[in-house]
Every structure is written in C-alpha cells, then in structure tokens.
Amino acid sequence: MTCKHCHNGFLDGRFGQDVECVNGVLIDIDEAHEGVSPDVVRPVAPCHPCWEKQLSDPDGETWENDSIERLEAWRGAEVSHG
Ligand SMILES: [Zn+2]
After folding, report:
1. How many angstroms does the Cα of residue 72 sit away from the middle of ligand 1?
2. Where are the domains of the chain?
C-alpha cells in the first residue's frame, strides 16, 4: 500500500533506509510485511493526524498512538488481497 501524503510511502529514507509510511505508521517495510513485534507501538508518519503532536510529545501522553490498530488494518487488507 502506498501513501499519497508521504511520497508513495518511501519518505526519501529520511527515517531510516527501509522505514516507510504504512497506513500512517513509520515502520521498516520488511518488519511490516513479516509482522515483526505486532504489539510494539511505532512512531506515526507525517501524514498521521497526530504527527504534529508527536513532534512536541514523543511519548504520546497527550495523544493516542493508534499505530498497532493501523498496522493490523493494513495487514488485514494485505491478506484479503491474497
Ligand atoms: Zn503517509
């Protein structure tokens, strides 16, 4: 899945060589596909509505990080595509 907000998800590698936007979550694309550590909260991507809040509050004390739910939804879509 690509992201129309983040230059097709690749983000020019500025968050790490293989780190891309996956449904609004910053994650190593290989980890995303392999389902590595599905219970780990990930940082959100620049297109995420809470991106600005994350910049000032990286610990997420004043906003809700829904990265786990977003990755689950993304994996669900992947599966249904076969
Ligand atoms: Zn994005």
Report:
1. 16
2. 19-81
